[in-house]
Amino acid sequence: MHVRLPPMLADLVVTAISAVDGAEFVKPVRCPVCGGEVRAHDMKKRHFARLRSRKGEKEVKIWVKRFRCGACGALCTADAPFYPETRVGSPVVDLCLVLTDDLPANRAARVLNEMGIVLDRGSVRNYAARRARPVPSTPLYGLRLPNSLLSLIPIAVGRDEAGPIPGAEVLAACGFPSADRTPLHPLRRQEGDERHEEKEKEKRETEEEADHGHEDGTRKEEEAQGEPVRDATSRTA
Fold first, then answer.
1. 183-197 pLDDT tens trace
2. Cys-Cys crosslink for 24: which of 63, 84, 127, 230, Cβ 3.0 to 4.6 Å?
3. How far apart are CA 136 and CA 98, in angstroms?
4. pTM of the model
């Protein structure tokens, strides 16, 4: 499938994503751990996307307010347009999922690059593998685009005010109802996720170190008591 990307479409996509730069997401939430009331903690800057234009690359960032639960002390965040365990905004992930419905990951990454979105082929393939269900999309200029991204375009183009799109409008466009912290089309956790594997490796190493420490302690205690020293092969279950 050969994809010809109209320059106008690429400009609209870049305009929509750029308009999110600096947006603030500050609406308080109930504690996701115990349901208790929360108080403001701080504002955290998050990476939303990286764009490329004739002027060079630009990082789009947003601000997400964090809260501390007064009951259990858990730290939680305001609603923001991100899927769990992803490093780019949900419209960019949606675009990856829609493109990889029709194209292999390497060609989808090429289309993203032509649109001015900087995202490597490995990330595109990773998001495609974590698909939970179809992403709502609409054909435009011979290419299917996610509704979340298309919803941002008229908001960005039609704004008279300077500054970023209000966070509440971004959430509505991306399909994140303020009363529901679950995305409309959530991603499932990918089996063999590299981060999960790294944590499991660290856990195993910690357990092995603890076992070795226990064995050394037992050996020294038995030597002090004059008992014969047992090695790992002489133990009984």
1. 434 444 443 444 445
2. 63
3. 8
4. 0.72
